[in-house]
User: Fold these one by one.
Assistant:
Number 1:
Amino acid sequence: MKEWLKISCLLCIFGFVREIRPSEPYVTEYLLGPWRNITDEQLVQYVYPVGTYSYMVQLVFVFLITDFLRYKPLIITIGATGVIIWSMLIWTTSLLSLQILEFFYGTYMAAEVAYFTYIYAKVDKKYYPRVTSHTRAAMFAGKLVSGITSQLMLYLDLMNYKQLNYITLGTQIIAMLWAFGLPKVHKSLYFHREKINTDIDQQTQLPGEDNLDVAVPHPKATPKKPRALLLIWEHTRTAYTNPRVVQWSLWYAIGLAGYLQVTYYMQVLWKVIEPEPEIAWNGAVDAILTALAALSALAAGYLHTGRLKPRTSLLIMVFLSALEGGCVLICCWTNDIYWSYAGFIVFGGLYGFTITLASAEVARHLEDDIFGLVFGFNTFVALIFQSLLTLIFITGFQLDPVGQYAAYAFYFIGVGVLYLTSVLVEWLWCPAPESETLENSLE
């Protein structure tokens, strides 16, 4: 087996196993069940927001630490924090323990950046498209298996909500142990980019001096941290002075923030619509949504490859954003749980298409070696937006779940209106042929 394919397979196994978390579709059912003494108001107001804020604060630090520590330690951290989280879910009962758990959940999610960037430090650039699809597919496959497993366990009455956590804990232990076996990374994009070359230079001798230990003089090495920070700043400046990168990065961040908020509290909404379901179909919904999102992402990638012009892509996003808002309205304005399920599934499928399209448009205008930096920063901006949504609608106005989701629906509709306005302004300001893109007209 080729080395790049071997490394890809090793990382994909980690991603697959880590995503097998059958307890996640039912975490709200579990927390509001007889195993814990907590109300739905405490859960929404004092528990879940901690995870949102923790994720946002930790992401920027985790990104830099990931590069400095060369990826593998952070991948191990993903597994270790997973073990901590589900151990606390099973064996603790207090409100404080849940808040501490949510802090670790922020770490668990923030450290995911190491999973997505590790492979780029280990394989040649020509394999980037393949390894990217491998790692994404592994995660989708894990989530699909997770949803099917959880639904079967409950439907066949083999496990209850609490017992599903034992499966999740087991997969996190396996993922952590597997991470120790990943190959080490000897260089990284910023803090260790010239380490190998420096070591080689120090061993080079003068021509004709084979018997003398005289090294070739070379300039004194510049301290790594200032150089790394300077390079980060230069890459950031280069990326975000491109108008198209800014335009699509903003959509990426706004769309991701809305998606995270909708998925984070959906189980609470379903609990309001159907307080005591005979059987909750959350696992099946997760499985169908994952499959549909994967197919949508593939469709977006196929359509984007040389087929969609920038303004056409923007108009598609305008239309799909409005549809996403409509799906969220269906989720919260119905008294039938199955209509809410259907709205959420279609919403997830649409999001899989739009986020893939936005990612492709951002990547189209970037240099190869700054993908991780830009998408990491865009995710950080998305978490700022998500924190603002939490602060305004949950902590501030303290809306009930139905009111919250109505607000999120109009948030997506508002995004569509915003980008429709930007398309119209761009068309009036730059009525040049489509081949003359916005960035060329501004240069």
Note: The chain has 17 helices and no strands.
Number 2:
Amino acid sequence: MQAAEPPGSNAGVSKWDIRKQIWDYMETNNLADFPRPVHHRIPNFKGASQTCAKLPDLQEFQRAKTVKVNPDAPQKNARFLTLEARKTLLVPTPRLRTGLFNKIVPPSGAAKDILRKCATSQGVRDYSVPVGLDAKVHVDLVVVGSVAVSEKGWRIGKGEGFADMEYAMMVSMGAVKEDTVVITAVHDCQVVDIPEELLGSHDLTVDYILTPTRVIETGCKRPKPQGILWYKISHETLGKIPILKNLRYQEKQAGRDVTLKDEWPDVAAAGKAERTASKMRPESPWLQNETSLAQARSGEEPLFDPLHQPASPTTVYVGNIPPGTRVRELKDALRERHATPMRLTWQGAQHLAFLSYDDASTADEAIEALQGLSIRGCSLRIELAKNQRSKMSNRPRQAARSKGQANEDFGHGQ
């Protein structure tokens, strides 16, 4: 396969162009580990663990008592190192569905192997307690993932806006200050030029960039997010992120303007035009949402509304199911590992099954949680379905129904 051109000058391009250029380059040059492909993800770049190992050398890390680290795969060693240093580790809940943070609480006297487990997505579920908006939390250091970052400290994520929103919510709850240090760890090829005009007031900037070969102090002076920009948030998002609703109530009680995007008189027409335009975009339209009424009103790029567009369902393949296994056994195993899918397609006669999750992030967490799973003494093969590996941006095609195959919703009581 011919190597792609390395990411270079990005003048006159969009955030999406930069993301795609980096994702394509990393895939073509095999610069990432599982999960693959890297498209629509924070890439788990080769050398991520060694890169994060530079974190304890920074004085900002040494002084920190509480560290917030994103839950993506390339930052797993950063989570472990935080726990090993006996610091308080906060990890955002996936897609902010159930709250803002989980505080990781390892067992007393936990050895390194337990701390490493605590740093995984399964460990976060098993060894954590929720942290609410009313908690008196002071975050000394923030570690985030990136798809692209410039030496000036300007950052581009995977396009869903959660890191920006998490930081804005921390500002609103008083957990971070203007001088709170933000660090990202990326592959060297992810450090590129980013035109300043692509940045909005909601975009999180970084103070340090760790790569396999460098530690870059950006000296970035651009202000970080100052809180939630309510006029860029929809009622739909508010309804699906309960903690955001609670935060809005608190700010309303404090006398702040919390008017939502779709509460402005002319927003309905603008929103309809925006959704029509997004449908015409050739690639993953739900990942990019950079024109809106708010932009026209303020001249700023809007905070992406992560739940305004539906995420693409993602399918996980389960193979090597031993003969005679019943679907109930697999369901029970999935529940025990906290990896319950939206739908299970059972093909017991072929010794396989397919699990459908509501998005790629949830599927990744399930795959990690299911590693090492065995039924009746047989280790199961757990991985993304082939159609997901080949083209993550497309919805998976439902497998043709055949004898011995059944589709089952994972409802209550099943």
Note: The longest helix spans residues 15-28.
Number 3:
Amino acid sequence: MSVMMAKMTGSPSVTPLSPPSPSPPSPSSLPLRAIPGGYGWPVVGPIIDRLNYFWFQGPPTFFKKRMEKYKSTVFRTNVPPTFPWFLGVNPNVIAVLDVKSFSHLFDMEIVEKANVLVGDFMPSVKYTGDFRVCAYLDTSEAKHTQIKNFSLDILKRSSTIWVPSLISSLDSMWDKIDADVANSGSASSFLLMQQFLFRFLTRCIVGADPSTSPEIASSGHIMLDKWLGIQILPTVNIGILQPLEELFLHSFSYPFWLVKGDYNKLVQFVEKEGKEVIQRAQTEFNLTEQEAIHNLLFILGFNAFGGFTIFFLALLSAIGDQKSTGLHEKLRDEVRQKSGSNSNTLSFESVKDMELVQSFVYETLRLNPPVPSQFARARKDFKLTSHDAVYEIKKGELLCGYQPLVMKDAKVFEESPATFLYDRFTREKGGTELLNYLYWSNGPQTGSATAANKQCAAKEIVPLTAALFVAYLFQRYDDITISSGSITAVEKSK
């Protein structure tokens, strides 16, 4: 999800920061180096890398070990999916694992993004109504401009209902959590989080109330889970019993018919209940009705629902992990000082003044980005620069950045780069300058989403919505205990 929310009524703006200092070395002052690493024997090399990636090492260790082996943050390797049933997928990539080299992935003059959302693998367009939705389009394609502008418009128009819809949905979720904790001593956050997000996001993005359809209201989030999960299973590490995961989840694509029934129900719901948004897509952005419906479902299901689920659960986990550091008291004091103890006072404007809340949100995004891997294909031959060398990239080569490792770049995030520091992005620590290097949104946090780039349309609203989520929590509770994804104790504010 992404958008230039500065244009939204009542929404915040981001003032671009001054150029980073000190400036990185110019390419001419750095040595030209051949890209180390390789792809191994055909078939065998990709399979070995796939097993290491998913089974023997896991993605973080997979990239880190190769970075250490080649003494380089830029190298050649293979990434899944691979043989046996991905014969049309080329697993060869050039990994870019420092902030400087990673930034090339977002320069649309030298890279293109057609069909590389998840590397060289692209799920069947049957999952999206036989359309290539905006996420798979390059900025050079006219349809990308139409759909990206449509996405930006959705967020702009939803600005008037975004915060009240969020607060009312949070009220329902946390009332249920309070009851579960009181009755059984704990409440699982995952299911309740997904129900809350589905209800809230469907209202704001589709302009539809899920309660108008009992089946969608009760199962819509499960339908989206299945539709989303089955597309990306070949590329993600689930962590179930091996070798079952390798044999059944990473060896082939799953057919659309497994989720066709549920997806068609979602299509029918959007078609019926989202008529105003669909009509606007047709009259103002020259999209067909079916293009609008399937792009709306992708924005809702993949970008918004999927992304917020991962991100908000990461926020809760960080809140639980940081309890012993005194973070809870500091967040509570800041929230109540800036916005009192009534959730009706929360707004985009109020959380803009909560520096520690925002820093906590940014640090969570730094270490736990909702989309860990970013890809781009070279649009032309160019020279790629890392911190210490220059590499020649050929047109057509695929670049891969593993963001959780990139965001631990010690030359940029100098203070304990692998450690969660909740005040890292505060002015007191000089951390606001680091927003130039926070790339969770397919671009820097100081950038702007436009039709000319691939930066997330909700680049502004996502961290602010997360700040509202955190602020709401510490308005409602004096203290909260979270362990292994469950809320085990809450102390409501007096």
Note: The chain is about 45% helix and 10% strand.
